[in-house]
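Re: weekly structure request thread

Next one in the queue (281 aa):
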Amino acid sequence: MKKTEQILKSFDSDAETLEKNIEDVLIKAEKGIKLSKRALVELRVNVVKNGFKNDTFEIQFFKNIKPHIYSKLIYYVKLFNIESKRPRGSAKPQKKYLDYHINKLQNYFNDNLEFYQYFRRGGTSLDTLYFIRGKDDIRLHPDNFHFFTDEKFSTSHDSTVATIMAYDMLIVYLKQEIDKLENKNGMESIMPTNQFSSKLFWTASKTDLIELIYAIHSSGAINSGTADIKEMAMACEHIFNIDLGNYYHTFVEIRSRKSNSTKFIDKLKESLLQRIDESDE
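Done, posted below.
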């Protein structure tokens, strides 16, 4: 697994650099496709050569590791196709086009609802059928037949997991693009910069702040739950002098955490309880 970890670490680093440094979405997609394909080839070579210690390792690989990279390949391919055909000009036809693709992507979840719910709730009872090679039972209703032609590097549902993850990312991206079209004035329309200047700086990670924003939004504590997540994010950016970047995308990553999806919220609770205990002494 050491080689696998190296491939993953290198891929994540290169993907992060790609997202940060390239503005042109088509160029970014093209480079992302090449990056993802190269990482998948490296993973395949390693798997075919070394195999797995046991079923647990194999399930972990095809349920989490391979889809992590394969989802980016699907994402970048779809992103390139959508953006290359996106209408230019006024906002109205663009929004209609983007909404059409959001609905089309969401239809995939409905078409694969049983497995989607199994995956989202963290099910494990059918993992040996879904994520062990050689379980090529057509009754499992896989979304494609790639596992028939590459049985050394595919299971019946690893590509389904990757597709779910990719479509999540795409929907987030497309919704953000719609937000941009609807709010061209950006922060100025919500909070003029000359109205309030903050000397506060967020010194934890961006992901921590995004987790906090979504927690507050979900609790209904702001505007009785009617506040827009974008408005809250931009207000926090202004107050804490930070650029949160693609916070929709970060939330997707928070949601897909395997161990603890509320890591920062839990840390806040522990810190507050510790302070309360120390105050009582």
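DSSP finds twelve helices and no strands in the chain. Residues 186-280 form one domain.
Next request, please.
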